Amino acid sequence: MGRRFEGKVVVVTGGGAGIGRASARGFAGEGARVVVAGPRGESIEETVGIIEGEGGVASAVVADVTRAEDMARLVRTTVERYGALHIAHNNAGIFGKPTPVGDLDPADWQHVLDVNLTGVLLAMREEVGHMRAHGGGVIVNTASNIGYHGRRPGMAAYAASKAAVSALTKVAALDHIGDGIRINAVSPGATDTTMSLRPGESDADRAARLATAVPAGRVASTQEIVNAVLWLASEESSFVVGHDLVVDGGVTA
Ligand code: NAP
């Protein structure tokens, strides 16, 4: 792989695990200086340690995407540390407890919306605020194939939040392409992280379930999702604006 992000400064939210960790490693592996954000110091510091072990440059900022002040501090700290913010991957998300609509606790609904949807808005507000005053930038949001593209029973809060991330991404892209900020989304299908494991399910159980549920016959690797994120963040996609790129092995084809 080349060094598409040499000289770039990148923020990744939800960078302490799964797709976010793989994204942070991917950007750093191609030359970016990466700020890894998440609500717990331990996991994001672990991501930083992995990146440094691979010869990359990264540092951590403890920040919860549901807190506007944390998102402001995340962008401020990034710029203080590295002098810029060029790219953001707004990836933090939670699955919530699968529940039929009739039994959904409004507090659980609100929490999923707060993290998955409002978290993306709060992050983008700060990122756009900096980028439009400093020559532009690129933002990639993580949506899901559950939401705008497809639905599953029991997933009302998650699906509604992710469909809204798709819509928010497109509106934000229209709002800010004139400021030189290119905004897109990636919508993964079931990916090899703890999020895609059902309660009590082993990796082998998941593989057996997805062998028939996914046309491609398997779970996605985090790298397969990150490949799409990096492409949308790179100059190779310079005319792609407001797109929501589904990477789901054909589930919603
Ligand atoms: P994951 O392994 O559970 O990682 C999610 C990350 O988000 C964790 O590092 C978590 O931090 C962080 N996070 C949770 N709440 C946060 C908050 N309030 N503020 C900041 N960070 C927060 O899940 P993943 O599979 O990598 O998912 C990443 C994204 O992909 C999510 O948006 C998810 O909805 C989406 N996605 C995943 C799949 C899949 O099958 N895995 C499919 C479609 C879409 P802690 O660990 O410290 O709590």
Care to give the gist of this entry?
The chain has 253 residues and is of the alpha/beta class.
Detail the topology: elements first, then pairings:
Elements (H helix, E strand, L loop, with lengths): L8 E5 L4 H12 L3 E6 L2 H13 L3 E6 L5 H15 L4 E4 L15 H28 L3 E6 L13 H21 L4 E8 L14 H11 L8 H12 L10 E4 L6
Parallel strand pairs: 1-2, 1-4, 2-3, 4-5, 5-6, 6-7
Helix pairs in contact: 1-2, 1-7, 3-4, 4-5
Bound molecules: NADP nicotinamide-adenine-dinucleotide phosphate.
NADP nicotinamide-adenine-dinucleotide phosphate binds next to helix 1 and helix 4.
Structure description:
The protein is of the alpha/beta class and about 250 residues long. It has one domain (about 10-245): NAD(P)-binding Rossmann-like Domain (Rossmann fold, 3-Layer(aba) Sandwich), CATH 3.40.50. The protein has helices at about 20-30, 40-55, 70-80, 105-135, 155-175, 205-215, 220-235, and strands at about 10-15, 35-40, 55-60, 85-90, 135-140, 180-190, 245. It has a seven-stranded parallel β-sheet with strand order 3-2-1-4-5-6-7, sandwiched between helices. Helix 1 links the parallel strand 1 and strand 2 (about 35-40). The radius of gyration is 17 Å and the shape is globular. The mean pLDDT is about 100. It binds NADP nicotinamide-adenine-dinucleotide phosphate. NADP nicotinamide-adenine-dinucleotide phosphate (NAP) binds near residues 19, 38, 142 and 191.
C-alpha geometry: globular
The end-to-end distance, rounded to whole angstroms, is 29 Å
Structural class: alpha/beta
- Uncertain segments: none
Major beta sheet, specifics? 7 strands, parallel
Output the number of helix runs.
7
Q: Which bin fits the share of residues in helices?
A: 40-55%
CATH class designation:
Alpha Beta
